[in-house]
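LOG
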Amino acid sequence: ALAEFVRAVVGDAEFAADLAAFVGPLVEAGRVTSLAQLLLKLTSPGVPDVYQGTELWDLSLVDPDNRRPVDYDLRRRLLDKVRAASAADVLAWDDPTTAAESGEHGGPKLWLMHRALGVRDRIRPGAGYRPLAAGGSHAANVVAFVRGEDDAAVVVPRLVLGLRDGWGDTSVDLPGGRWTDALGGAGVEGGAIALSDLLSGFPVALLVRN
């Protein structure tokens, strides 16, 4: 009876259209949240828990739905492709139409993982972390901190659906000195940094000391 119910629901065109209309606006926010969570895991103290097979966008539920063979060939192919890519490149590759045609979904996530693990290697073992202050109209939508003695700075959004109208006047205070965005490559001076500028090229930021 349950199986028949599920088949009937999925096969109902009116319901499917209603569900698609509900889910549509959540997709981009979900992807940004996924990138934010991944960067936090890879830059926080301790061992990052990245579930095998979730290096790309993953829409499966938890056990037992996520127990399936991992397509390592796809991940190797994508990793080779993203190694030298820019943020703009990987975001363009993840266009729903082109990604669907190539089957290469999730380039931004794999690219972020590759870049963040490279920076994590530079953070001294046992390094602590401290928060960075945020100000402005969407200060509550920011998670920001530095690792160690300013080895790296991390800035990610939270409660992403509350940012539909952009960051406005929101800023984060970076320690003084010169920083380089390990994701976008731009140089940034310490002090109050507008998030509309810092996160204009990619949804999260990972900065390293020059």
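LOG (cont.) second protein
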Amino acid sequence: MECAPVPFDLDGSRILIVSASVGAGHNGAAKQLAARLRERGSHVVISDLLELLPDRGRWTNHLYSTQLRFAPRSWGALLRLLHDPALRHLTVAAMTAATGTALAALSKGHDLVVSTYPLASQVLGRLRVLGSLNAPVVTYLCDPAVHPLWIAPGVDAHLALHPDTAYRAMSHGARQVSVCRPAVDPAFQPADPAGRREVRRRLGLPDAPIALVVGGSWGVGRLAATARDVAATGAAVPVVACGGNHALRRRLRAEGIGIAVGWTDQMPDLMRAADVLIHNAGGLTCHEAVASATPMITYRALPGHGADNAAALRDSGLSPWPQNRDQLRTVLTSALRRDRRPDVGFCAPPPADLLARYATAARPAEPATAGAGR
């Protein structure tokens, strides 16, 4: 559903987007926001918060990926601990001490700063409160569930991808929350049955019901077990996007489970080829599924943000969350029986329209030309 654009000109505006290289979701959102803003005439710089750490984020990234691969419950436990305001305060203070000076320097001269990562929002918000950052800060909420880390004092506005997400953000004290469309590559578009058959032929996939199984760019989670369960239902062929998890790809191929796909830049085609998306984290791929009008199912959700997002997506009616193979069979069969793909969108402006409003409001007024108005 198209909505009327917001008539704000971005020519000459300078916008800084702060993301983080933890998986591909935060960076993916940042890149798509930057592309849309540049189309509107803005000068955009993307900065990785982790690159500002003394070790350029190598330890943080290693710890996070190790937790998700080998001890995912420890990640869920850490996120639960960070619901405590005192622990959040200590975490944010440490990150601000490590990155605040560099981030304040990067922000100088920009009309707007946008965050796609919760700790970046916290540091930017603190800089705003301390008066070290003059430009307004907008947080783009990547997750349907809103952990308290996403909401920082000092942040001027928030963009949510669903009304339910907006409500969750406001319940945590978020200021000025607006609903927008997901920021995804325009290549993610709905496909009719004939278009799906053509994409399958081109990719060498069978012309049969396909369940695209994803676990983010790292291919984390119990994806092999998910593929087995999908295959056991007999309802669809599991096509597993393994990302950078080469061991998973080898394992699936050795066991002959479905079709294993390694790292690929053909996700728009894979999404068009699929009849349903099965995910475990509710991240960027879910936004791409919304843009592609592809039905979603959450299964074997990752602890922490994965389970939180699963509950949020279930409650908003976007993605059922079966808990075992029998429930998966029922939900998957139901999704495949639909005569047409559901319209899971709603009338909301593109994020660039809303960001243009904030950037325009922050720019100084043009000096009056001598003799103007005569």
